Amino acid sequence: MTTTHTSAATLSFQRILHPSDFSEDSHTALLHAVKLAVALQGELTVMHVDPGVARKDFEDFPKVRPILEQWGLLPPGSARERVQDLGIAIRKSRALANNPTEGILQYMSAHPADLLVMATHQYDGLARWRHQSVAEPVARGTHSPALFVPSHVEGFIARDSGRLKLRRILIPVNADTHPQRAVDSAVQLATALGGDNQTGIVMHVGDDSALSRIRFPHRDGWLWHSMTCRGNLVDVILAMGADFDVDLIVMTTAGHDSLLDLMRGSITERVVRGARCPVLALPT
To answer: Is the pLDDT of residue 277 over 50?
Structure first.
């Protein structure tokens, strides 16, 4: 396998949006959003959709400063202004809508984000029709990059210390969905977060023509593995993720291409429903 330097553009996730329902699952996604905002020196907006009368205060919102203090980035009892010393901005916002998806999409229409960070519940089959899905239609409706953090997983950010736990990244590719972008984004994200000694696992199901065109970025401490697999694409991605115990899946997505996709979800959406780790979805 040929390894070369690449001149890909720097990852630009300066405006990060985290919609929260104030649940424990949302808190795990919030930790990832905070870590990314600090690493990328960006602006983090935490928003909530009120179904009835919108409250004017933010007392029920999750607190970010205690997280930064627990991680040792701020001293205990820091004033609000000290957050700016880290080079980040924290904003809070409420939206009023009967439907959370509608409220989030309306907000993003007026306030575009570079990255959406959301918790997602892993319903499939009939259960998906019985439970209201928010993360998938929001990501689909905005065409924005999205980091999905599945419920009941810790993800790649340690809750107590903020330490990065990102060692193995799975990157499924094919010729139709810009494989180079997925590879470059995985490297840039891990580098921005301060990761070292990463292993990138690039896999293709079917014809391996896409693999031959990928330029693998050279970074100290990185190892690259590439492979071609056979079988159902979603099943193979999920099996590889479990077998290699990966910490993150990075994949580009073209959305829904057929009526069947509309019924059961795109490949990326089905991967998100079954993944045991966060999934970074990059729309083409």
So the answer is: yes
Same domain membership, residue 145 and residue 19: yes
Say whether both 143 and 176 belong to one domain: no
- For the entire predicted model, the pTM comes to 0.87
The owner of tokens 């996604």 is 29
Exposed / middle / buried, residue 252 (Cβ in 10 Å: 0-12, 13-18, 19+): buried
Question: How many structural domains comprise the chain?
Answer: 2
CATH code, domain carrying 244: 3.40.50.620
User: Please, how many CA atoms are within 13 Å of residue 10, restricted to the half-sphere of its CB?
Assistant: 6
Q: Which residues pair with 252 in a beta bridge?
A: 282
Q: Which domain holds residue 178?
A: 168-283
Compute the Cα dihedral for 65, 66, 71, 76 and give only its sign. Answer: positive
pLDDT tens profile 41-95: 999 999 998 887 667 788 889 999 999 999 999 999 999 899 999 999 999 998 8
Report yes or no on 156 lying in a domain.
no
Mapped onto helix, strand or coil, the DSSP state of residue 267 is helix
